[in-house]
């Protein structure tokens, strides 16, 4: 996808973080916008891009519900008649040992980080195929989908799934000679609002104050770690420009932190060499 002006971009999780930055970059490029988010923070992003001159439609919606994503697709077609760029951006993080994390949290993170992508592809790809025009889909994953670390089983599981899902869908579209291109965005730590994602929980995934996990040292340590790595992460201001450049160049894997490449490479090498995962690498 090399032309952006007057094209239509759909972005989930657009209320803050990457989503808001993607919306602003799309507006700079003259795109029409359809923005979705679970919170009314969405209005702030919408007001910003309107001031930049963009046409914008918004929908407060939950990517864990297919009917909400389908409504987003219907809004897009009703208002603009087509869709050219889909950024499945909405995401959350859950940390802690796998056996301690409540099943409610597993359901929430899978619903958002995995089913959010599935729902987006299911709702929008048929529209794009019918259009038969150059389109692009960006699925936001994480460098956590290319490597693994301790006490982040839920997050790594969903992000590895996001990478594998995007790769497989991309192969299928290639086999059809489709005009739809795909990218999977795998950033490291960036100064987003991801560490405060608990405030975006739908009611059915709400923290149960009676569950002892939320008073545990594991939960508290996870929150502290998340706040630290996000606050000390890469500034967010240049991220959207890099992603849109990758879209223009039809780059599939979009990475932001070269320092993780040796770790990713070591994991692949160990698999090929038949070596077991070794915790001692985290003590170096």
The end-to-end distance, rounded to whole angstroms, is 42 Å
The CATH superfamily bears the name NAD(P)-binding Rossmann-like Domain
Task: Give the DSSP E fraction (strand runs of 2 or more residues).
Answer: 5-15%
The largest β sheet comes out as: 7 strands, parallel
Helix content: 40-55%
Principal-axis shape:
globular
Largest sheet: spatial strand order: 3-2-1-4-5-6-7
Number of helices: 9
Oligomer category: single chain
What's the level 1 CATH class?
Answer: Alpha Beta
Summarize the structure.
With 284 residues, the chain is of the alpha/beta class. 44% of the residues lie in helices and 13% in strands. The protein has a single domain (8-258), classed as 3-Layer(aba) Sandwich (Rossmann fold).
């Amino acid at each position: 996808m090399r032309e952006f002006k007057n094209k239509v971009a759909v972005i989930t999780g657009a209320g803050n973080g990457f989503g808001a930055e993607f919306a602003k970059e799309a507006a700079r490029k003259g795109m029409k916008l359809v923005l979705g988010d679970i919170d009314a923070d969405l209005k702030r992003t919408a007001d910003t891009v309107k001031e930049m001159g963009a046409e914008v439609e918004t929908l407060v919606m939950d990517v864990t519900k297919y009917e909400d994503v389908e409504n987003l697709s219907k809004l897009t077609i009703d208002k603009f008649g087509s869709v050219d760029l889909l950024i499945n951006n909405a995401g959350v993080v859950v940390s802690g040992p796998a056996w301690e994390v409540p099943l409610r949290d597993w359901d929430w993170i899978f619903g958002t980080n995995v089913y959010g992508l599935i729902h987006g592809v299911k709702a929008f790809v048929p529209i794009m195929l019918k259009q038969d025009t150059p389109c692009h889909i960006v699925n936001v994953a994480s460098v956590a989908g290319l490597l693994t670390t301790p006490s982040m089983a839920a997050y790594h599981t969903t992000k590895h799934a996001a990478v594998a899902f995007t790769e497989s869908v991309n192969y299928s579209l290639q086999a059809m000679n489709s005009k739809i291109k795909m990218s999977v965005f795998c950033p490291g730590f960036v100064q987003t609002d991801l560490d405060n994602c608990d405030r975006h929980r739908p009611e059915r995934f709400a923290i149960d104050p009676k569950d002892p996990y939320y008073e545990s040292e594991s939960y508290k340590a996870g929150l502290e770690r998340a706040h630290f790595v996000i606050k000390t992460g890469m500034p967010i201001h240049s991220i959207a420009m890099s992603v849109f450049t990758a879209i223009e160049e039809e780059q599939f894997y979009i990475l932001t932190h070269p320092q993780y490449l040796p770790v990713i490479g070591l994991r692949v090498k160990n698999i090929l060499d038949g070596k077991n995962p070794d915790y001692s690498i985290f003590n170096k």
